[in-house]
């Protein structure tokens, strides 16, 4: 978008808005023509994104091991207050241009892979940012940005971006108001696409693409409202919020009326909880200390640093080798002491009987939960494991690869989990996550979001902060995953203070990446990949 | 492959092989260099396939409405006996070339999109067939052919072919013996691909692509053994057969030893059941009469023809409008009488309570089952529906969009279905279908395969005939779906006699399509699509 519109959209230091009901927000055209984007502008081959950590908790190629850090990362500067971008023609009073999505002229191919422009005067603004396109750039680029899971996995990313392209005709030439005015209908339109439904339905590539597109729409909507996404949701009246949710296939467990009652109850004490979040943030746990493959020395070092930094909740990866797990869990438990919280994560390595047997051996280290003990599709398997481990005081956590609300509905029905881990990019964006947050509340199961992938922390913090303020109203047994990993590539990285997520204050869904990062990690021509691929050849 | 090798691989009229144990089959090199194929040879843009019927049971563009036909289609000619291709240097005694998959030289791009060549002298042999490539052509082309679900859904097909390409490095430069020698390991290798697992796991595009590649491998293996696939499986010793199955995530319900016992029991009376199949075929039901959107007159006409042709089992699509359903079901039940079998299919249209309510209204028409009443992911929902409809004598059937063995395992555990509908291309090929057939046997749930999509009948008939001969040993409550639709595009179309599938006699998995069909339906440049796309523009 242009610097002016970026400025116009940036929220005030207190994220205040003079509209408390987003549904009443008119999206008036300013008569200024916006730049356009061709579908070429999100071709996979030209899309960027840094290499993420690999499956099985290996380190990503050419990336430093994550190191816990407690002090707020650079985000302090340039975020809110004095640091915030201030430009002519901006300010809270000015109206934004009407966002819309339309084909970009062939004349601007060079901008295809570029990140959203910086607000004029914003710290680290990319050179020439002002030359970049309009609001809809943000939306389309956002659709590519909103692929944290797949950033850095080029073969994989290509598929998802390809699916985003296949769904593009649903958004191109639409005004934001057309989309959010009937958001439930639009969600259903994307997930019921005649052809693409066949390669789902509501799962795999096509659902990741749905999430990417809708995450970008939510980012645009929040910017339009000059609010961070969590605040957009908190301020939204319950009926409008419910109109974003597709209740199809879950009405046997949660009707719209039940959901409305939950949200109404959530209104009580909302202001206080928002104040609490702004002051203390949302509790986090760290996964940065104990990846598989770390030497005991590295593990000790990272653990020591994390303790110094004030972390009190730790997750260790398990499942490769039992004796190795016993040694590493003993080491960590001894370091953090009996009071602090330890969680374990098996990344789907076991069959059901194996999971029970293995965890019985690790019970002595008092884990709060075992995460992904088996296939993410195995609802009844998770239920069996939950039942078997309950007497040992070990809960079951899963969700990062549960592909839609129907799976979460059953996990709750079957008492298959004690900790529900939503994912901001696996489910169908905010829309579907809202339905899962509401079902979790009905079953009184704490939501502890999955994060850590490239940008996942940036996105999911909005959802869990909204959950606390408007739905769960509780922090008991609740925390959000945190991995100190690759945040430097994001324009609005998370801020962690005293092992808690501090609520983002910038408008939007925090999905934007830095232009220089995107360029550098462009596959296969970016500097980073060129080096990696050359190294592989030698 | 060359005419000579085609001949060498073609099975005798009785499909006999002098090897009864495929696992002992050496794959000896003949010293003849085989032609090669580049990965370009299955680029999505160049892949073909006829338009299939659309979701919601609409007619595919530009295709005649399916009409039941009982007499064996042209397949009689050129299939077995005198009609079979006989070429010099062929004969049952001659050895095939060693199949392998390696990059095709750039010199033969024109062959990239071509169908496998016809055996010399075979009816309707494509001109210049002899010029076509070697065994591995069949395997790679097979990977594109083995996409029945997606043929004719160009945006969708593009994704799956793209995923096939992404998995290609697992097969390229491999000998068939390398793959089938450790088939379980190879299956695990495909489904555990570090990057692509993220966009599954074992679901969606990447799993359809796994199925496509493995279906092609099975086609090649069966041709190598000069047997139709069903016969390859029937003759395979149980241990070898089990070595093709990945038991991961299902051992809580079926261990390898339990599976072995099932197969051992299946040996008893096998020869008689094979004889029974060869003589009478496997019972089928027709879905051709009662698509949604057919006028009552069309419905009557098709029903009359089907009855004349000897059909005794009929499926009607329901779920769009209750009153419409009542009228159509009454019409069909009146036409077929009280004795014949009627099934209903809702194609996932309902929520759980809605499904129970709706079917209670249609119970008077005595349907044997309601198919896909709700989301294919909703195991517990199907269980609830099953329990509610049992007193009405209505069973629940599902499976065509159940994405892997873990879902089927749970459907069986939860008593969520009374009829299990495997799909030859949704699950991970024969390998994963074998595990589902064995689990179904353990729970004594009849398997009634899904078919009807482009080529699905051709493939799945092999699996269900094997199931009867070697696993279930029963025809009670069992039948295979049949739609008289687009078989004319296949080189070895199904043969239906007296409403039964007659066991294929040609070597392979019946996946091959005719070269002229592929050319004609190439997207977007094929004659058919050019017309359709031009029509859309006007």
Automatic annotation (TrEMBL), chains A, B:
Polar residues bias spans: 1-26
GO annotation (BP), single: carbohydrate catabolic process
What is this protein called in UniProt? Mitochondrial enolase superfamily member 1
- Its Enzyme Commission number(s) read 4.2.1.68
Q: What's the top EC group for this one?
A: lyase
* Similarity remark: Belongs to the mandelate racemase/muconate lactonizing enzyme family. ENOSF1 subfamily.
Query: Which gene name does the record give?
Result: ENOSF1
Composition skew (Gly residues), residue ranges: 73-93
InterPro entries attached here?
Answer: Enolase-like_C_sf, Enolase-like_N, Enolase_C-like, Mandel_Rmase/mucon_lact_enz_CS, Mandelate_racemase_C, RHMD-like
Q: Does the keyword Transmembrane helix apply?
A: no
Key words of the record: Lyase, Magnesium, Metal-binding
**Cofactor(s) recorded in Swiss-Prot or TrEMBL:** Mg(2+)
State the reactions this protein catalyses.
Answer: L-fuconate = 2-dehydro-3-deoxy-L-fuconate + H2O
Organism whose genome encodes this protein = Canis lupus familiaris (Dog)
* Ranges of biased composition (kind: Low complexity): 101-134
- Tagged with keyword Lyase: yes
Which residue range or ranges hold the Mandelate racemase/muconate lactonizing enzyme C-terminal domain? 296-392
Could you cite one Gene Ontology molecular function of this protein? magnesium ion binding
Please list where the region (Disordered) is annotated: 1-134
Q: What is the lineage of its organism?
A: Eukaryota, Metazoa, Chordata, Craniata, Vertebrata
Classification via Pfam families = MR_MLE_C
